[in-house]
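Private note to self, pasted from the team thread so I don't lose it. Backbone tokens:
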């Protein structure tokens, strides 16, 4: 067995990961599409921010039915993103700066343009036919995550194939040992090139039971994951699964004796108050705190590593969904950052969060790109008014987070993203919200992130310490971190102004004010909306 040793696991708590959606990060060659050289050019921005790892969303060859999550060659860089030499240079430049590099591994499905699928669909006798999941008639009524039946008819073989996501994303048949070997070979290919880890796309979908069972978390999932990662070559890797797992299942996937994953994303806090992502949320901040406390306690009791995130490329901005992205944009952006990233776990920051990016508003469906958004529009356009539907889409669309980064305040250069026409319109509030304007502001979100990440880096109590909930008032969250003799207290007030009762130990001992988003305050002064204060005793 090749399980990760305790020292390897604990050093991952020193990582702070920055997620890059390459298409929208920075365009270095002026064709309107973000690229790998663009990432290289902006590495010093990431160093200035204070992160030490990058998760690069798929940059492989792809027809882009789902923006790179439909891979047509796992070993080739998409030409619009550059070449393998560019990628190698990125690897070298990140190494120089001691930045870890995590690649996205899309193991559940390929593109329908992948050579395996082109062959597979051509005839039932083709040697690749069994790489995918076929049925003469749909054996169940599964719906694809992006809407519509998960089964698609294939003319040449007169069969249906399974696609858990878009029609252009046929699911691989992991029961076939050749598929498992092929995917291990992909992992090895990138591991040999020196990557530090993988973010594993919808990993819990790779095992399913098409006859009467579930679409994901099927009976052989653990075996498949171990085959991928519990090997001498892969034991040093950081592996984070995108798995919609509850506590018991997380323990099975990430338990340190399991030889499966380093950690997994869980989504309770981003699904909070959600019935359908396009409709208004119904939540209280106490619910948010309770979820965080539940997962902190659970992961601590079971010695699991936890991921700390609010945003990614599949969510509208957290700040717009759960906070006030107008009058209190700075306060919310900084409060959420402090609240999440001072917990026990591994921070993940999504591009744009570091200057308080928010949702956009566009009134025409043609101004949207995402396949899921378009499917939702088609499914609802005859059911509700256009105005109402567009409001829903603006609230829930994944495109909110996928628009080009606004680096500068200069509209003529597409806010510093490209010199030509960008592949996708910039955020609708880019004039007001961009990195340059933010950095020149008295209330700079970026400056706060810098302080916050430096604080994490300097204080082992934040990276390695344990967690205790100390909250007494509703509408607030107070927690303590403890490591040896060091203590940190993080006190955050949500939307309403109030005085907070600080923990009694806090009053007796000698804590100093370390960080806050309203400047230095005494512990007894009432907290203003979305005020956060951090106190430290070393
Ligand atoms: O975005 C979602 C629904 O709005 C999620 O359910 C999402 O589809 C799910 O988290 C899986 O996401 C991952 O796999 C998808 C891809 O489109 C996403 O971008 C990726 O993060 C299919 O590969
Ligand atoms: Ca480009």
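Design output:
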């Amino acid at each position: 067995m090749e399980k990760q040793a305790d020292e390897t696991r604990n050093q991952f708590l020193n990582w702070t990961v920055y997620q890059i959606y390459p298409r929208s990060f920075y365009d270095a060659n002026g064709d309107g599409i973000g690229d790998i050289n663009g990432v290289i050019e902006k590495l010093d921005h990431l160093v200035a921010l204070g992160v030490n790892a990058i998760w690069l969303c798929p940059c492989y060859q792809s027809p882009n039915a789902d923006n790179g999550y439909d891979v047509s060659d796992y070993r080739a860089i998409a030409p619009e993103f550059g070449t393998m030499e560019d990628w190698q240079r990125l690897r070298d430049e990140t190494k120089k700066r001691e930045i870890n590099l995590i690649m996205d591994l899309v193991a559940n499905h390929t593109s329908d343009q992948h050579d395996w699928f082109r062959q597979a669909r051509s005839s039932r006798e083709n040697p690749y036919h069994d790489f995918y999941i076929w049925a003469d008639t749909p054996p169940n009524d599964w719906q694809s995550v992006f809407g519509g039946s998960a089964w698609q008819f294939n003319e040449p073989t007169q069969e249906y194939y399974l696609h858990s996501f878009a029609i252009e994303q046929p699911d691989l048949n992991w029961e076939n040992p050749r598929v498992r070997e092929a995917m291990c070979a992909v992992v090895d290919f990138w591991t040999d090139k020196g990557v530090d880890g993988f973010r594993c796309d919808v990993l819990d979908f790779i095992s399913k039971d098409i006859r009467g069972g579930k679409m994901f978390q099927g009976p052989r999932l653990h075996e498949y994951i171990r085959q991928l990662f519990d090997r001498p070559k892969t034991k040093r890797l950081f592996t984070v699964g995108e798995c919609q797992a509850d506590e018991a299942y997380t323990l099975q996937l990430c338990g340190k004796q399991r030889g499966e994953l380093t950690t997994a994303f869980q989504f309770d806090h981003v699904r909070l108050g959600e019935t359908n992502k396009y409709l208004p949320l119904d939540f209280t901040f106490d619910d948010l705190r309770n979820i965080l406390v539940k997962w902190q306690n659970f992961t601590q009791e079971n010695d699991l590593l936890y991921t700390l995130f609010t945003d990614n490329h599949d969510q509208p901005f957290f700040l717009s969904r759960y906070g006030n992205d107008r009058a209190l944009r700075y306060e919310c952006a900084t409060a959420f950052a402090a609240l999440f990233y001072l917990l026990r776990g591994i921070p993940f920051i999504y591009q744009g969060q570091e200057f308080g990016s928010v949702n956009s508003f566009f009134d025409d469906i043609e101004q949207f790109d995402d396949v899921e958004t378009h499917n939702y529009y088609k499914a609802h356009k005859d059911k509700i008014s256009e105005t109402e539907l567009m409001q829903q889409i603006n609230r829930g669309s994944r495109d909110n987070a996928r628009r080009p980064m606004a680096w500068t305040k200069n509209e003529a250069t597409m806010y510093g993203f490209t010199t030509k026409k960008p592949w996708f319109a910039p955020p609708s509030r880019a004039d007001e919200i961009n990195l340059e304007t933010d950095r020149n502001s008295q209330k700079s979100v970026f400056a706060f992130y810098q302080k916050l990440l430096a604080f994490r880096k300097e204080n082992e109590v934040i990276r390695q310490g344990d967690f205790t909930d100390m909250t007494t008032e509703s509408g607030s969250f107070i927690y303590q971190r403890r490591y040896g003799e060091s203590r940190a207290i993080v006190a955050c007030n949500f939307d309403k102004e109030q005085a907070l009762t600080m923990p009694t130990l806090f009053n007796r001992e000698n804590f100093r004010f370390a960080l806050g988003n309203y400047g230095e305050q005494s512990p007894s002064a009432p907290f203003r909306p979305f005020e956060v204060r951090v106190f430290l005793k070393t």
